[in-house]
Fold these 2 entries.
Entry 1:
Amino acid sequence: MAFDKTQFLTGFKAETREHRQTLSAGLIKMEKSPDDKELLKVLMRTAHTIKGLSTMMGYKRIADIAHKMEDGFEQALEGKVLLKKPHFDVFLKCVDAIDPLLEDKVTWADKGVERPFADELFSEVDAVFSGKMVDGVKPVAPVPLSQKHVAVTVQEDSLRVDVEKLNKLGNLSGELVISKIRLGDIVKNLAHKVDAQSDLPESFHHLIKDLREVSKNIDLLSADVQREVMKVRMVPVAHLFNAFPRAMRDLAIAKEKEVDFQILGEMTQLDKSILDQMKDPLMHLLRNAVDHGLETAADRRVLGKSEGGKIVLSAHQEGSQIVIAVSDDGSGVDVARVKETAVKQGLVARERVNDLTEEQIFQLLFTPGFTTEEEVSETSGRGVGLDVVREAIVKLKGQVEVKSVPGQGTTFVMRLPLTLAITDSLLVDVGADTFIIPIDMVQETVLICNEDIKTVETKEAVTIRGSILPLVRLNDLLGLPRKGISEKKFFPIVIVQSVEKKIAIRVDSLVGRQEIIRKALGDPLKKVRNISGATILGNGRVVLVLDIPSIIGSAEGGIIHAEILRPKAATNVKKKKTILLAEDSLSTAMLEKNVLESVGYSVVLARDGKEALDRSAQEKFDLVISDVLMPRMDGFELTERLKKTNLYKDVPVIIVTTRESDADKRRGMEAGADAYILKKDFTSEGLLETIERLLG
């Protein structure tokens, strides 16, 4: 009776890929230390294991490849061959051939199946090890298999588990934690009621005591279950990092550069679901480091540097976050070129580009399509695709920042949560609603009064420990009504930080600290900005988790955009109206655009009055919003010229500006503006109400 191997196929492929990775990483390491006999023994045993597995499963060509590699390793171990670059090249070609053969539907035991590339590979292996392709290598006769005495001990001390099963187990343990919290609240409330009734029978008090004990035990057990499930999901970053040395070797050869690639902290543990999504972002950063971060050997000599450049991929844990960094000792970011490119692409007005901080300049690198390279290579220039890198990191609830010193190198630092499931959180109340702030984003909480709030550069701010921080009113940000804030003498603010940016968030009250199980949002809420998920509290209430990096981004530029959790103006938008927005500050323009688009308006951006006037001649807009101070043509002239045309004489124009003198207001009205809004008094709700009124 034939033995059915199909049920073992998945496990065979997974195990073979692991051994393939061991070979690849080991070969890269051994190329730098060809006399490492212990590593050579490991490589030989690994090739032997692949050969045995493949033979048993009927993958003859893979077995043949592993056999060739095993022969080569044994010859090197016996001193018959001195391993040089051509040997490692052909070994790595053998490793590369394994994956395609694994995915072929036909096993290599089937008759009549030929693969010429495999035959060519074997010929190349024989040529290299016979000395025909390597100077100084003594030709040796193949060692018959019967003469080999390789002892391989396999100990089954682990079990492969499908990732989907782990995900389901994680979800169930999360539901257990939620139920535990709910049980605790029920017991607490019941105990309070029983304690208030002194004439109840003694049996009730005993019952409450037993319930408290049961709740306590379930609390401990659920915590243990959750902890153990998370341990199973945590894997060393080495599972991902060890795939990069080979890629870096090949890229360095292709770019004709010497690269000293180092990996640090490879045993740092990270949730596998997060680790799996980090391959592409890291690969992109590493390619950029080789391609455009490091100088050529000749240039490095002129600069007094070593000919070989250094690239370091590292990981370490900081509290509840994992920090992964990619650094090089190359030329660093060319700040002047970044500024010039930003101006050319219309991202920043030329007269304002020198006002940008270093952090703001580096953040331009993450703009879609941004690159300082005149010619884009296959591996792309520094900047190309970095928007995709940031998008991937943000999707994982992380942050990415850039550090660079001219002539000394660049470092990309990524901060990621240990896991996306459990979040230690601060619960806050805003009006009748409760929200959650991840505790690792919280720096401190402070009580302030209205007198502590100042206006700095047209936006509200508070001074905390000598630092001036933008103040975000959470109710305004989320489109919620203000309740009771003005009557309070003191109220709490939460200082939060993402990367190097801090803001103060004003709330009604602090509820407390609690571990929560974060759940992803489904349609239609998954696209809501400033919200990263939801959870269920012990009382069964669903509450939303705030996306702090998004909120900090919303606070930049002095304007806070509304996130319509409870649409008001949207219900009155009969049809999609188109608004022309003239604003030369990119951050302000994008924030205003988000406010308008969140309630259904279509928005066309113009970088100054001249561009706005040109666009107005090409199509009819329902409303125009304009800043005042802009290059080429200011907002006053734009308004005046629009109002003189038959096409726009009845179209509403709103001026949003920092110019607050009576003379400026009067000039705006005389030019024909229908509304004049100061940025310091700006609220998204006020803007939308003004637009509603003007559009009728």
Entry 2:
Amino acid sequence: MKYSQLIAAFLALAICWTVGAYTLGGESHVGGIPFYSWGVLGGLLILTGSGFALWDARRTRRLLEQPAPDEPDEELLALQRILETREKYPNGPEYPHPVIEADRCIACQACVEACPHDVFAMSASAGKTIATVKNRELCLEDTSCQVACPINPPVCLVINTIKPIPRRPAPARSDEYMSKEVQSCYLIGDVSGTPLIKNAANEGANVIDFIARELETTAPPAAAIDFDLAIIGIGPAGASAAVLAKRRGLSFVGIEQGEVLATIASYPEGKYVHFKPDALASCGGIDVAGEGAEREHLLELWTNALVNCGITFNRNGDGSSYQQATHVINENECCRHVERASDGDYFVVQTQRTLLGQWATYKVRRVILSIGGRGSPKKLGVDGEGLQVSDGETPRDKVLYRLETPDAFRGKRIMVVGGGNSAVEAAVSLVARRRKDDRIEPRPAQEMNVVSLIIRSELKSDIKFGNKQQVYDCIDDKLVKVYYNTSVKEIRAGEVVLMNTETGALIETVPNDFVFALIGSDPPKGFLEQIGIKVPKEAA
């Protein structure tokens, strides 16, 4: 019973008692109330009921007009998800278990690497290699496989789970890679939530085909336009798009805040870069055929692909200006603002050349965002993080945020902070002469570093199998010392103070020359939201 109905019932009883008490004159009447009092009572009840009905209707209307809450009820969503998946897969068991939609699987192996229980495997099916459920009974409802799947909606689904499944913090886009919120702005590569080199290169080619077809049927704006395209970010996706844009005759300006292919260049020397998905054909503007290649070979191969296509680089370091030059990639130029024009179908892009302090403005018909999914590296936020040490003649930072040249560190006491793939790979590279797949060759004694790996809790669940195998081998061989449930408390000139992550109690003071803080990067959420692109919150 609603509160309004209960109040109405009590009110009716009170009216009956009042009417009976003041109208009875010792005579006997039907129900103890004279006939004329029944009329009064009926009228009052009708008015009261109508009033409560109107009040309920207005309250319901207000509730319906209110915006939906930002955070939906997770339990209700889980139940709704169970009902939807049961309709799609009615013949499976009642307990939680994963399924793979084979027709949409891109063989990226993300679910295989994310699952900690050996549930998945890569298998041949219908003439192609895809992920398959090998040991369904081993599933412990981890759901990390569904979270890791880069396809939207996910190809890997955990059926019958009531656990909340975090959303990937990736912006929504159409099948043509266009932003759902900003018309004519395209997202490819890491920023779209698909962190795979071969996919990124292919998307770079596909997006140019989509844009070329669109521009053929779209009237150019009345305002003067500098370029057909602005390609913001020149990693594998942006480089592939630049090559295809040149081939298709589209004018463009490339904008790169650092150097071309900086992400690949930031990998340790000699790192073998895998081209996943292995079974996916390559159709991009840069060569990503085969299983992969070493970092140095890729940098040379892809840079030559750009140059041989007739694309030039402007380093933005000598004062020269190539603002209006076509088919040029401007390095050391940071995109600050992107806005749709108010007087036509084009964008106004504002940039700053970081080495020169110059600002530039471009008017372009379409924008391609291939900036990657990471921004500035995260800091440790401890005392001494800004220390410099004397390593030879030139002072250098004691805390570094990426490892480019492992061979530059020999006979050093090095601490690697982080529990992800980057940290594990860095720790192994600092004690290995060569590494490929699950095999490493240790350095000779005279070149060996003393390496410790600092992890806040445990190794992350999405560590690649090959990286796990290598780091565990290094730990077993006492080449790397690992500290679990440990954080850095303070950094000093020749040592680092460690503490327990949960209690804050001091653990040990470790002699140290350099610290590599490889704890991730902040996503470019602010930049995307400034353009008008929404980014879902990442699960805690």
